Amino acid sequence: MNKLAFSVVYAFIFGGSISYSSNLEASAWIGTQDKQLHYDVQTLAEWGYINSAVTTFPIPWKGVADELASIDDDSMPYMPAQALKRLQHYLSINKRQQSRQFITLQASSDEVRFRSLDDGTEETGKLSISKEFYHQRWSGQLTANYASGGRTNFDNSFLAYQFGDWNLRVGSLDQFWGPAQSSSLILSNNTRPIKSVALSRSLTTESESRWLSWLGPWYFTTQLGQLDSNRIVPDARVIMTRFTSRPFKGFEWGASWVAMWGGDGQPDSLSDLWKVITFEATCELPEGCTDAQVTKQGNHLAGFDISYSFTAFSRPVSIYAQRIGEDAVHGYKVTDNANLFGVSTYIHTAKVFLETSDTNVACAGQGSTITNCYYEHGTYQTGYRMYGRALGSTFDSDAKQITLGANYRFEDGAVAEVYLRSAELNPDGTRPSPVLTEDVTEDVLELSGYYQKPVGNWLLKAGGSVANREFVNQDDEVDALVYLKAQYAF
Q: pTM of the prediction?
């Protein structure tokens, strides 16, 4: 899909936002304006008050809204009660109004280096103007972003049409795939959202079909998108597919697959797309290939994630893992895997978690210790990145990290988050990843956090971080930044 096509789409969205102004249904997804609502849905699922697939952001309102209406809130513990209260409040706003408009201002003393789902800002200075609309089966959002340096874009704009239990969407939305709290190995909002056409299930609850009810609550999305033009292979395309299911209460598993293909100078016909989808083996060497040199057309990443919640000492405890591989040489077997593990629970008025991941992966065959390959590719040499940032882990490739985090909730709707991160970046000192800014190797210890509070029609947020950075070839540094964000809802 070329740039002109997306321009037409955004023009259509803008026209639709003016034309559709009555017979409100509801916003299509939870948390597109306030990502804390996604944590609220996860909270209710972990405490057992709803039974929905909740490890893919954004989650559709449909189905979840019905579950919220059926919850008996008598004697609910504090944390799920607060989550329910917030979700009911925002759902009632959607149902009372025919459209909503937002103005968002954000400023930061420097670029935020490590981003979580709702942590930090995207630019050092940014003004965003958004308009939502909903009309029967249609929903949409037009967002115009004016960033520092005169840059403009329409990130987080979309037009969606719902038919039955399915949703067809065109545009761009922040996404986050997996059960982790800090980052995702395959798709996160570490960088700007991908422009795409998406077909997704419009709910995450159990299917009424007797043929599919055995899956439990489930969700599926498949998307065809396009990356940026400022790369070695400009305008590369991506296929993105994810399926999640909760076959029994408390347990959810997901399978994800992303493939880069096409772009300037690369095969991009329908037959080439079919070769990518069917994982057809190919040889890219003119002199021919040995069995070890045969690869798949395109750049593939795939894997799975699982999460399980159980009760201990009257509190939910969740354990989760994600395993994403960089290649699949032998048939459909995914190889060169990176791993993420985590555990979370609730203490007083906070959800706390401990999470670790390792993308320091050896990809040169069995027994090899050579790294510098994860998120990289011989043809798509810009790698699995967009606008210089990884589409997956916020720590990029060749990185080991551990994060301790806490999310606090207050009775007035305020939220506070704090993260303590320790990361070892590119320990071998060769082919450094873009996340490195000063040296070829770095050990970093960072404390970051923010406080967010609704005040009337305003949603105010202030945060920052301080990091101790240890280098090999230069003196160590201590960096700090602060950021402010204010959103007004008309």
A: 0.91
